[in-house]
């Protein structure tokens, strides 16, 4: 390692400077520019490549963060970063990129609105929304049983709707989501059985694309490391290749590479190189995730030249696609490579990344903190390490299992460096307790390295048993993954243990292995290639620096121009504002004067209205008094006629009595007027009832003659009520006098009804003897008949008399015609 340090001494200083410059640019200009570039690149992707990008980024986050977040959270972070729908990774079967109202509501957080919409949807739209709601709850971050219950509710609803539709496609989509539900619930066997049903259903339908997708889903939806997972994925990849489903083949191959990543680095790298080639061939440009993983594998094997090549290519691809949202993860790979080459410049990059740490970016910078702390202990000892660690864990206490495990190891390593063995053992034991809880598929770097580090501590303290224990913990990882970087450390600790045990032959062999592995990268070809890469890297960074500085200069000039423009606009705005203020003030004064004048006029109007109201009230009382006096006068006339009738007989007496009845009919109207609040209208139903009662008493009919009244509560103007009352009086009087001779019993029916807003009808019918046969209405010359015809003419009414089974008098009139006539007469006067 010392020779490598010497080779890259000059390279180191410049790498440090350029890396710090990259971080500076990352936090200033580059994100603004790359965001637009990123949108342009992604904008050329179809829905399948967008889905692939979301899934690939999520898997990368999930693996790099080693269980600090669940896969559902990683998917959500990925979708939010690219402004994709949160349902995109899961809706492959039915989402072709078209607009979905329900999906939009779910992405906006309006879940209740989406539920209400479900009740209104029909056919395929209803099934799709039920699946989307089920997907939302199933893949909601966290492990809330209520969410699982809600998910199952909507999945079952989708199944029922799919069965009713009779469409195999929707049945398979519902079964696929149900299979994923059982996987989330921990019932792997039931989940796989349902996936097999979907495969079988597509085979029956000869749907080769459906078979490929179903096989892929069956393999993908098995936990990492499950024995049959790899064979299922490889079969699915072959079938996807045969069907030309390149994007799905890429996704399946990504999962295959993960399986090999945790078991065999050699095959994993081969699969990743195949993956990059397939991505390039399909037009998928976001290859930096795969390249970064290849760099990691080469780094772990101690192959620094290819590791650095892949890391630089990953950063280049990231910049070319503008995908800088998770840039610190890729720059950290370069920094970690430097640390593995014993270059302190890598530590400087990590420390620079910690300057902008926050709770919101914790997932990104916490790994940088752990690597920076480990490098500080290595280069500067345990005290400097604690000075870095303690303030940060006080402000940001470790939360996840990985964070607590990493911090425990770092503290143990610090105290081991300070020879405070009891504290070191305490934290190493805590680390061991936590590491046993770590999922197996995340145990690929930190744990084996830490086991060897703790074994080294116990070897240095002479504790052979504990040294052997931790070497045994690390041993399985030495052969399975071929991790050269940690295997030479393993050989070194084994050499120390053999020396403690006095097994010098084995000690010499292990020391030889250590030297062989540690010197394997020191060939002349490696040195030349490292120097060549140094020149490439310097040139690239100089060009990028010049480009970035040029862009910053252009940006500053643009800002200066913008500033001048804003200054001019501001000055113009101030002048315009002053003019507007002056106009507004003038308008305000004018409006104020107008308001004062309006207030004076308003007061005058109010006073005049009050005077008019008083006059109107006085007029009402005067009218009431007039009507009262008219009524009294009419009663006086009636009394005089009554007195006169005492001296008359026969026709003269009858004439007097008829006149009394007519006068009473009019007096009733005047009585109603002066006893009512309204002195202009008469309520006809009570008026008619009172008139009938009066006539019944006047003719002393007793129970002999029955009256059937069907009168609607209608109000009429006085001008209409008086003639109508007189007509009614004549009709009833005629029936009482002539219809029932010889004290016959009989019935008089009176109907007064409103036909529409302005039209009314009046009918008076009796079942008496009727008129003489062959009568002619116009030739009847009695005073009563003439009076009714004349009053009908005054009302502009249709008047007719019929004699069928008795006598009927019918009248229909229109108040609107009467009012118009009154207005015309008033106008003429």
TrEMBL record:
InterPro entries: HATPase_C_sf, HATPase_dom, Sig_transdc_His_kin_sub2_dim/P, TPR-like_helical_dom_sf. Pfam families: HATPase_c_2, HisKA_2. SMART domains: HATPase_c. This is histidine kinase. Keywords: ATP-binding, Kinase, Membrane, Nucleotide-binding, Phosphoprotein, Transferase, Transmembrane, Transmembrane helix. Its EC number is 2.7.13.3. It catalyses: ATP + protein L-histidine = ADP + protein N-phospho-L-histidine. Residues 719-817 form the Histidine kinase/HSP90-like ATPase domain. The chain crosses the membrane at residues 565-585. One of its GO terms (molecular function) is protein histidine kinase activity. Gene3D superfamilies: Histidine kinase-like ATPase, C-terminal domain, PAS domain, Tetratricopeptide repeat domain.
């Amino acid at each position: 390692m010392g020779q490598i340090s010497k080779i890259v001494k000059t390279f180191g200083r410049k790498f440090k400077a350029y890396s710090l410059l990259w971080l500076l640019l990352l936090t200033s200009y580059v994100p603004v520019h790359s965001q637009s570039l990123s949108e342009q690149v992604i904008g050329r992707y179809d829905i399948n490549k967008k889905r692939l990008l979301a899934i690939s980024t999520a898997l990368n986050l999930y693996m790099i963060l080693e269980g600090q977040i669940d896969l559902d959270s990683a998917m959500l972070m990925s979708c939010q970063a690219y402004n994709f729908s949160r349902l995109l990774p899961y809706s492959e079967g039915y989402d072709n990129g078209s607009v979905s109202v329900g999906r939009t509501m779910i992405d906006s957080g309006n879940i209740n609105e989406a539920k209400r919409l479900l009740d209104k949807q029909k056919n395929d739209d209803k099934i799709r929304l039920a699946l989307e709601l089920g997907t939302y709850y199933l893949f909601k971050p966290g492990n809330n049983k209520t969410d699982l219950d809600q998910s199952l509710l909507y999945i079952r609803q989708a199944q029922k709707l799919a069965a009713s539709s009779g469409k195999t496609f929707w049945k398979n989509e519902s079964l696929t989501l149900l299979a994923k539900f059982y996987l989330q619930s921990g019932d792997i066997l039931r989940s796989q059985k349902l996936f097999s049903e979907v495969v079988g259903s597509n085979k029956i339908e000869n749907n080769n694309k459906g078979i490929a997708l179903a096989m892929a889903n069956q393999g993908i939806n098995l936990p990492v490391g499950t024995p049959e997972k790899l064979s299922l994925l490889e079969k699915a990849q072959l079938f996807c290749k045969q069907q030309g489903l390149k994007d799905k083949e890429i996704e399946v191959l990504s999962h295959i590479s993960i399986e090999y990543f945790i078991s065999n680095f050699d095959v994993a790298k081969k699969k990743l190189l195949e993956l990059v080639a397939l991505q390039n061939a399909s037009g998928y440009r976001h290859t930096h995730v795969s390249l970064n993983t290849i760099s990691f594998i080469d780094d772990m094997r101690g192959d620094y030249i290819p590791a650095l090549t892949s890391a630089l290519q990953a950063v280049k691809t990231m910049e070319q696609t503008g995908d800088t949202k998770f840039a610190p993860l890729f720059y950290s790979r370069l920094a970690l490579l430097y640390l593995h080459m014993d270059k302190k410049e890598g530590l400087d990059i990590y420390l620079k990344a910690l300057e902008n740490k926050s709770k919101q970016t914790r997932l990104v910078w916490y790994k940088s903190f752990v690597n920076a702390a480990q490098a500080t202990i290595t280069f500067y000892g345990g005290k400097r390490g604690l000075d870095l660690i303690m303030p940060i864990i006080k402000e940001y206490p470790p939360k996840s299992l990985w964070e607590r495990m990493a911090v425990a190891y770092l503290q143990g390593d610090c105290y081991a460096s300070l020879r405070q063995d009891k504290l070191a053992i305490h934290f190493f034991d805590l680390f061991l307790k936590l590491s046993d809880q770590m999922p197996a598929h995340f145990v690929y770097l930190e744990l084996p390295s830490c086991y060897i580090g703790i074994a080294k501590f116990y070897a240095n303290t002479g504790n052979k048993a504990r040294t052997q224990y931790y070497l045994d913990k690390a041993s399985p990882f030495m052969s399975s993954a071929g991790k050269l970087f940690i295997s030479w450390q393993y050989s070194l600790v084994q050499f120390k243990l053999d020396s403690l045990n006095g097994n010098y032959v084995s000690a010499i062999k292990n020391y030889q292995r250590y030297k062989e592995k540690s010197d394997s990268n020191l060939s002349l070809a490696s040195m030349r290639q490292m120097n060549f890469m140094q020149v490439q890297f310097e040139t690239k960074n100089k060009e990028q620096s010049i480009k970035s500085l040029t862009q910053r200069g252009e940006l500053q000039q643009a800002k200066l121009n913008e500033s001048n423009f804003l200054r001019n606009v501001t000055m113009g705005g101030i002048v315009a504002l002053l003019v507007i203020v002056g106009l507004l003030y003038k308008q305000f004064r004018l409006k104020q004067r107008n308001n004062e004048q309006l207030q004076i006029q308003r007061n005058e109007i109010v006073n005049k209205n009050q005077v008019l109201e008083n006059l109107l009230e006085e007029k009402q009382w005067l009218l009431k008094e007039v009507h009262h006096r008219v009524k009294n006068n009419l009663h006086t006339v009636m009394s005089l006629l009554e007195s006169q009738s005492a001296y008359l007989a026969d026709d003269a007496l009858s004439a007097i009595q008829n006149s009394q009845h007519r006068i009473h009919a009019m007096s009733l109207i005047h009585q109603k007027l002066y006893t009512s609040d309204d002195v202009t209208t008469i309520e006809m139903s009570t008026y008619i009832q009172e008139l009938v009662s009066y006539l019944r008493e006047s003719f002393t009919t007793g129970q002999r003659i029955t009256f059937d009244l069907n009168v609607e509560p209608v109000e009429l103007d006085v001008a209409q009520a008086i003639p109508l009352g007189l007509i009614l009086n004549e009709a009833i009087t005629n029936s009482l006098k002539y219809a029932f001779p010889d004290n016959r019993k009989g019935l008089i029916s009176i109907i007064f009804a409103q036909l529409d807003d302005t039209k009314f009808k009046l009918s008076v019918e009796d079942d008496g003897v009727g008129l003489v046969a062959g009568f002619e209405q116009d030739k009847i010359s009695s005073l009563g008949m003439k009076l009714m015809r004349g009053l009908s003419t005054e009302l502009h009414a249709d008047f007719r008399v019929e004699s069928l089974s008795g006598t009927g008098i019918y009248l229909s009139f229109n108040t609107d015609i009467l009012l118009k006539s009154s207005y015309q007469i008033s106008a003429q006067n």
